[in-house]
Design goal:
- By secondary structure, the chain is of the alpha+beta class.
- It is 37% helix and 22% strand.
- It has a 7-stranded antiparallel beta sheet with strand order 4-8-9-1-7-6-5.
- The longest helix has 30 residues.
- It is globular.
Length: 418
């Protein structure tokens, strides 16, 4: 059997195996306290040389000619005489051949993605030169990189590195990885595949996004998050604006600012992950496709900026149990008593229709759950064509007035409401 046939058979077997597996990415932190000066330079060189190769591929307009066996590459550098990047120097490449192949594959895939976007009618441009590269692909486990033990990994042409977080990977099939960097250090993001397991779920929950209260649930709970930019970080930003752009002090302070922003984002990610994790005990998680970007661009920019609404929405979309209803459905205005729309201002916190009174956000969350259980594909136009009698009849079937709609999982959320 030829080598190409063996590869073909292996890929077919892997594709078949992946159907019963779920993908997970584990992030490993490289312990910089154990890094020698030589290895730190090699790690930085990986990103610099990846940028050289990628920009070199972009500079070749018609025929792209780059081979993974190349040991040198032409790099355009700044010419102080002309004040432009028109000077060419030959630089030595030390990264592994598989890393070079993966960078070329990334370049080709970017072109394919632009072509697909153009076919869909989107306006596209050209691939642009990169000032920095923050991710280097490691395409093959066992060759490009290896896991030696619970504390050590090895990367091609870099060597052995001490890494934290290897204990996360248990009973998983390891695939490719990415070497990444940010203001807080170097990381290896390892892609793994685990066997699919069906989790025990029960009940359903409706979620309403808001400004005064970030989240309102159909069971009556509310959650609010407000992550303000620390005053210390604001002072650093002000200090940076007074420094000469491009100077050493400017670069040093900008690195500190990026590190602080990364820590700030980590706090937001942690809160979003914990909340969404608490929803995994439900068989259905229903939310409305809210225009959070529009809220941010409109009257509530500061409130949305300091919240985690976008993070929560994107993570709920990734749940297998998520149901998303049409954004134009009148979940706040529609009355569960008469089936008609009732005007309610932004400053009015209670929904009132005759003798019926309920918190507007809780009522919206219940209505979202009602629509998700009745017909997840229902549009606002279809709803307007239904007679009020039919709407109220369905409300009586699905809407939770005094008792809980379904046996919700009481132990699903470890958070304190309010």
């Amino acid at each position: 059997m030829s080598k190409s046939q063996k590869i073909k058979n292996t890929l077919a077997a892997t594709k078949l195996r992946r159907q019963n597996q779920k993908c997970k990415v584990f992030e490993l932190k490289i312990d910089e306290s154990k890094l020698s000066t030589e290895k730190r330079k090699k790690l930085n060189d990986c990103f610099i040389q990846a940028k050289w190769i990628y920009n070199n591929l972009i500079s070749q307009n018609d025929e792209v000619s780059f081979h993974s066996s190349q040991k040198e590459i032409a790099v355009k550098v700044f010419n102080p005489e002309t004040q432009e990047c028109d000077k060419t120097e030959i630089r030595k490449l030390t990264i592994g051949s598989q890393v070079k192949q993966a960078i070329c594959d990334r370049f080709v895939q970017n072109i394919v993605n632009l072509s697909k976007a153009k076919a869909k009618g989107r306006k596209i441009g050209r691939l642009k030169f990169k000032k920095d590269v923050f991710s280097v692909p490691l395409k093959q486990f066992g060759t490009t990189y290896k896991i030696l033990d619970n504390q050590t990994i090895s990367i091609q042409c870099v060597g052995k590195l001490r890494a934290r977080g290897l204990g996360q990977i248990k009973n998983a099939e390891i695939a490719n990885a990415h070497l990444t960097k940010d203001a807080t250090g170097f990381y290896v993001q390892v892609t793994c595949f685990e066997e699919k397991t069906k989790a025990e779920t029960s009940g359903a929950i409706g979620i309403d996004f808001g400004i005064k209260d970030s989240i309102a649930l159909s069971d009556g709970r509310k959650f609010s998050w407000n992550f303000e930019i620390p005053a210390k970080l604001k002072r650093k930003q002000k200090k940076l604006s007074r420094k000469k752009r491009g100077s050493k002090n400017y670069v040093k302070l900008s690195k500190k600012i990026r590190k602080n922003y990364k820590q700030h984002c980590n706090k937001k990610d942690d809160a979003a992950n914990k909340f969404v994790s608490s929803l995994k005990g439900y068989s259905k998680v229903v939310m409305q496709d809210e225009a959070i970007h529009g809220w941010h661009a409109g009257l509530f920019g500061k409130q949305v900026q300091q919240s985690i609404l976008g993070r929560i929405k994107s993570r709920i979309n990734q749940l297998e149990t998520s149901v998303v209803i049409d954004r134009w459905l009148p979940t706040t205005k529609i009355s569960p008593i008469t089936g008609k729309k009732i005007k309610i201002g932004l400053d009015e916190r209670m929904f009132i229709d005759g003798n019926f009174t309920e918190d507007r956000d809780i009522k919206s969350a219940k209505t979202i759950l009602y629509f998700g259980l009745y017909n997840p594909n229902l549009t606002a136009k279809e709803l307007s064509g239904l007679p009020p009698e039919e709407i109220t009849a369905v409300f009586k079937q699905f809407y939770c007035f005094e008792s809980k709609l379904l046996p919700l999982n009481e132990e699903a959320s470890p958070f304190k409401a309010g």
